[in-house]
């Protein structure tokens, strides 16, 4: 039995993470973490492989951290979704049978969803021509996927440049477009648990929600059903476009989305300077009771952290418990941790996703 098939080994690594989160939050008198586990295999919805040429053939390869010269050749990838594992040998057979598809192909990326959609990106060290387009169209049809070819200055899309996901929160189905190259949660099963936890913890509110770092609207959609209205911000153009499409696809009309960084929104709320991207949005019309943040690994910068202090409730999802703890330390004199959770988004690694609800003292 491999470690990936051993429930006892999985439980042990999860308990280690719980102990680590408990230790990091102990200075803030946090309650015991709620723990949300992951499937022990086939949980990862996206994967990226370099290709390694050996004995005249290209193979999927990965490398240990810090070592770019010793490939680990891969035929199957048990942590990846069953869809990725089914596509891997079919794609390999296709490039082995076609010089047009394989010539100067150096990287392959898979993006799949719980809803059954799939997108493959092929990356090349050469320009892609009509012959490539013809074979790629045939391949996409054969595999039942969308396909993107990337080369310097080129991005050829066959089908869609996004996948479609469906996640259920509190009995309601939400549909998401997840663009190629934009951030999405890699573990769909745990993502759904995170959404449900955030929905439950927020509770039914009569005031408004401010969301920073909203991405494609992953949390925005279900949380919008718990409040009067939402102002959400995101800086990535592709994520903003996906979020706008997701609002329309789900028929949600109480969300205003603005393309601003968290730092810029802080300046706008502090009336440091106006932003044209806020034209038509009356910030003074909002009665914010909760701020929701899901920042990058670096956490919130000090000014944004100070901004969140104004709110009665701070709902914080973190992919880095160390920066989460540092941000809580800055807020601890005015807010206390009343709920916390560990989401095992990344089994078999030291990484963890966590969440806290901070309430004004």
Automatic annotation (TrEMBL):
Give the Enzyme Commission number: 2.1.1.35
Task: State any GO BP term from the record.
Answer: tRNA methylation
The reply to whether Glycoprotein figures as a keyword in the UniProt entry is no
Q: Record's CDD domains?
A: AdoMet_MTases
What GO MF terms are annotated?
Answer: rRNA binding; tRNA (uracil(54)-C5)-methyltransferase activity, S-adenosyl methionine-dependent; tRNA binding
Catalytic activity reported: uridine(341) in tmRNA + S-adenosyl-L-methionine = 5-methyluridine(341) in tmRNA + S-adenosyl-L-homocysteine + H(+); uridine(54) in tRNA + S-adenosyl-L-methionine = 5-methyluridine(54) in tRNA + S-adenosyl-L-homocysteine + H(+)
| Residues annotated as the enzyme's active site | 319, 353
Q: Which UniProt keywords apply?
A: Methyltransferase, S-adenosyl-L-methionine, Transferase, tRNA processing
* One Gene Ontology cellular component: cytosol
Where, by residue number, does S-adenosyl-L-methionine bind? 185, 213, 218, 234, 294
InterPro entries recorded for this chain? MeTrfase_TrmA_AS, MeTrfase_TrmA_CS, SAM-dependent_MTases_sf, TrmA_MeTrfase, U5_MeTrfase_fam
Stored Pfam families:
tRNA_U5-meth_tr
Q: Which family does it belong to?
A: Belongs to the class I-like SAM-binding methyltransferase superfamily. RNA M5U methyltransferase family. TrmA subfamily.
Chain's role? Dual-specificity methyltransferase that catalyzes the formation of 5-methyluridine at position 54 (m5U54) in all tRNAs, and that of position 341 (m5U341) in tmRNA (transfer-mRNA).
NCBIfam families in alphabetical order: trmA_only (TIGR02143)
The protein in question is named: tRNA/tmRNA (uracil-C(5))-methyltransferase
Look up and give the organism this protein is from: Pseudomonas fluvialis
């Amino acid at each position: 039995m491999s470690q990936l098939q051993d429930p006892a080994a999985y439980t042990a690594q999860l308990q280690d993470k719980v102990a680590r989160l408990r230790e990091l939050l102990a200075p803030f008198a946090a309650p015991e973490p709620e723990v949300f586990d992951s499937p022990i295999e086939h949980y990862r919805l996206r994967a990226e492989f370099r290709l390694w040429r050996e004995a005249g053939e290209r193979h999927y390869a990965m490398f240990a951290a810090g070592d770019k010269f010793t490939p680990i050749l891969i035929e199957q990838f048990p942590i990846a979704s069953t869809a990725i594992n089914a596509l891997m040998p079919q794609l390999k057979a296709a490039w082995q049978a076609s010089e047009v598809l394989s010539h100067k192909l150096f990287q392959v990326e898979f993006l799949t969803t719980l809803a059954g959609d799939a997108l493959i990106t092929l990356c090349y060290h050469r320009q892609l021509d009509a012959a490539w387009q013809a074979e790629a169209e045939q391949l996409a049809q054969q595999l039942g996927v969308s396909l993107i070819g990337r080369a310097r200055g080129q991005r050829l899309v066959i089908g869609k440049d996004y996948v479609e996901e469906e996640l259920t929160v509190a009995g309601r189905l939400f549909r998401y477009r997840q663009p190629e190259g934009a951030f999405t949660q890699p573990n769909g099963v745990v993502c759904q648990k995170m959404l449900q936890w955030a929905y439950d913890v927020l509770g039914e509110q009569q005031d408004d929600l401010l969301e920073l770092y909203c991405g494609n609207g992953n949390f925005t959609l279900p949380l919008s059903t718990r409040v009067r209205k939402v102002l959400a911000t995101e800086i990535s153009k592709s994520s903003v476009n996906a979020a706008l499409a997701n609002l329309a696809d789900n028929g949600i009309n109480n969300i205003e989305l603005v393309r601003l960084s968290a730092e810029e929104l802080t300046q706008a709320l502090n009336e440091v300077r106006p932003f044209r991207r806020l034209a038509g949005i009356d910030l003074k019309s909002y009665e914010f009771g909760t701020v929701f943040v899901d920042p990058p690994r670096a956490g919130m910068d000090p000014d944004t952290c100070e901004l969140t202090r104004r709110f009665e409730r701070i709902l914080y999802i973190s992919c880095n418990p160390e920066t989460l703890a540092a941000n809580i330390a800055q807020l601890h004199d005015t807010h206390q941790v009343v709920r916390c959770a560990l989401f095992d988004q990344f089994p078999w690694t030291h990484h963890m996703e966590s969440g806290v609800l901070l309430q004004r003292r």
